[in-house]
Amino acid sequence: MTNLLPHHLALFQNLGLMAVVALAYSMGSRPIARTPPFVRGILIGLVFGGAGALAMMIAIPLAPGIIIDVRSVPLILAGAFGGPWAAIIAASVIAPVRILIGGTGVEPALLSLIGTTILSIGLWHVRQRMQHWQMLALGAAGVLSMVPIFLGLLVLGLDRGIMLFQSIGLELMLTHTIGCVGLGFLLLVEDQRRNIETQLVAARQAAEQANAAKSNFLAQISHELRTPMAAITGSLELLSSQNIPEGQRSLVTVTRRAANNMIELLNDLLDLSRVESGRITLDPQPVDLDALLGDTVSLFTGRAQSNVEVTCRRDPDVPAAVMADPKRLRQIVHNLMGNAVKFTERGFIEISVDLGPDTADGPNLIVQVRDTGPGIPADRQEAVFDVFEQAEAGTARRFGGSGLGLAISRKLARAMGGGITLASTYGVGSCFAVSLPLVAADPENVPAQPGDGTLKELVTEQPLAGRCILLAEDVDANRTILTGMLHALGAEVTPVADGQAAVDAVQAAGEQTFALVLMDMHMPVMDGMSAVRAIRALPGAPARTPIVALTADATPENQAGYESSGLDGFLTKPVDWSRLVSLAQALSPVRAPNTAAAPPTSEPVDPGPQLPVWNARFRTDLETTLGASRFAICCGPGLRAPKPV
After folding, report:
1. What is the pTM of this model?
2. Residue ranges of the Response regulatory domain (predicted)?
């Protein structure tokens, strides 16, 4: 007993074993943490109880039948990190092994196990209340673990117990303290890491839920706003196509401009939500750069000041067609051009397309918008790309705008693999440069783009003449306005108010089916998707009826779901009439009005030169929808009924 070297060696071997156990606990803590608390306590108790049992295999023979080891360390840590059940399970594993070893030290060992278990459970309660003093508590537990060991040795007799404790007590206390502090520190670090991971997972889930809630809210509010906006813009389109007095026409023009601004703001908010959540969808396809530049110049020349020249230029080395998302590229260019037109009062605005320097990923396409506007101060040039930020505090009051365009444009450019930079001299002008990966495309593969004619221009051509269209729309105002618009474009219209009525109408038409079905997606009785599936399930020709969604729900995610139901096209409200005409002409041949499906909604009209002449039923419906007073104010003498026959 006087030779302490073997004692020290055995104790350090015990500690090495405890370190292995701590490593095993660290590796298995993640799956253990996913279990219910009761099961977790049992698993931790089994792990540390097994460690205590192994420690007795390399114990120090202190006297015949009496062994000393560090079994108390895993027992203390089991309760401290696993709770009361872990301590009880660990003690239940250690005790039978000690009984099997046998000897005169069995009773002292069992007594010390009971005391250490109580100490372990007490340490667990202390850890729950002392978040900042846990290492001190672990060290104190290592020292206090000597108390049950000393009391257990006294069972052998007072003198003998004191003698045995004096021979190994100091080394054992140091070993227990080092074991509890050292291994406890490793376990604390592992627990803290796991807690941080849990908090991060919870924070990510909360962020995802909040983002989903925001997206759902925006999708819902988009639908709710687009629905009345469709009626407003539709009414304004119809009014602007009439021969109304100049005073009323100017009011219609102002109102249309305000409605378009409202729709642009709504679109910006939806785009901002999508790009911030990483849910922006891109549809790369061949883009005709000359057409893009020409359309942009044509669109913004009329908006620019009279003493501002708007020009465009494409470097001959740049391919005539490139692969890009045409909608997003046009959105970026229009945002930049819109700002240039808004702030430039004299001089020029130029949009140019050039080749950028080669990079590791290949050449870049550089689209630049230069202007001779007021310029942007150097300390504000980065801030203008932030959400709701503008160059100066008074900019919004003087020029209007929400401060979303540049933020969205930069995020879109980055989503497309590029970026936007700004070079500006205050008082001289600005140059915004969009850099995108250059992928040449075959100009022959550029898809045809619908025209941008106004309803008044389209009405004079009667592009939908000879087509019978089924319109499924549940909102009375929208159904009335859309019916009038389609009549003005030359179509015969059968309006219905829900999806089931649409299915019934298509089924009743039989082989003489409709040229086109315009289907709202959110309707009572039967929604649009269910109606589309029901029509596709009909036998014969009705199942092949072209169906185009016409909905205020503009989110790409929902659009993909709608198209999977069997749609042939997708249009959002407010209606892009040139696109609707293009889709109708592409999907449906000219055919005679379908009189079998439903009574015709048009009546004989005055063959005079004034267009359009609306049928009496539509005039009555519109007057009922708007009210007599608003109808008289809005429509004036421009809305004339046919002469009686």
Report:
1. 0.52
2. 468-588
